[in-house]
Design goal:
340 residues; single chain; seven-stranded mixed β-sheet; alpha+beta; binds 3,4-dihydroxyphenylalanine; 43% helix; BirA Bifunctional Protein, domain 2
Length: 340
Amino acid sequence: MPGNLLQQALEEIQKADTTTALKDVEVKYMGRSGQITELLKTLKDLSPEEKRSKGQEIQTLKTGFTEAYSTRERYLQKAEIDAKLKAEFFDITLNEINPTRSLQAGTIHPLSRMQREVEQLFAEMGFQIADGPEVESEYYNFEALNIPSHHPARDMQDTFFLDHPKDEKHGHLLLRTHTSPVQIRMMEKHGAPLRIIIPGRVFRYEATDATHDSTFNQIEGLFIDKGIGLAQLKGVMNEFLQRFFGESDIKVRFRPGYFPFVEPGIEMDMLWKRGNHSKWLEVVGAGMIHPNVLKAGGLDPDQYQGWAFGFGLTRMAMLKYGIDDIRHLHSNDLRFLNQF
Ligand code: DAH
């Protein structure tokens, strides 16, 4: 009897030509009230001897069914995938033979392009391009820049701290809040004279709005040599801004400003003209490098002087292209990006 049942089940398995049909066969024999399942249920009423021999038979039946079932299942699954792939044929020559479909080429992100532009302009003025880590220590980000631990200036730059044990000398790890720590790293590594710019991403733990983002890009500048003064800074920045904005009559002015790592510190404004309107915009922080900062970098302040500046590349980009919301720049929204 079970022999016939197996025969019959195997035939049905072979006849099933889709995985769905095959599933039905499984339910018919092995489901909750399937024929093989029902047979198993009869075992409990038998004597121990009968149970043993009958049990063995049913077990053989079950194994026979399962083996045939999985072989057929694998075959049907593969056939179905092959059929699907065949139907989903993708014509890679379509763009060539059908000129109404245009190819979409990627382009460089406006911020990256602008960074390259700035690098190029400073390189032409004899500056080298340097780089530093985005994960910094309290020492480089603050201490060495003349911002000791209880200095109120630390609160001016809200900081992302890393969950990492504190180091004796360098303090906690953090995401750098400005590119200025690379000043120290460059002095330590190369000494003086130095003429570099440092482009990079910086991070502030701040609420975002149209003019603030928690990640933005800065460009730091550093010029160290003997007998350096602020006159060169004015000349360099004037030249840079004229070339960057492509306008020959850009005016800059210095105002006193406070940054712990420079003395005197200055804010640089640029006269911004649009149509009949013009106004002074604060664009760059700068100053003569503080003697404590030169010392921290291993230089003798009696021998070397220098100036430093820092500005937001992101802000420059917004001015240059009239972008009204800083968050567009990291949105990866093609409607925005395609305008560049
Ligand atoms: N690090 C300053 C900031 O992020 C910007 C800055 C100001 C950089 C003055 C300088 C400088 O090098 O001299 O707000």
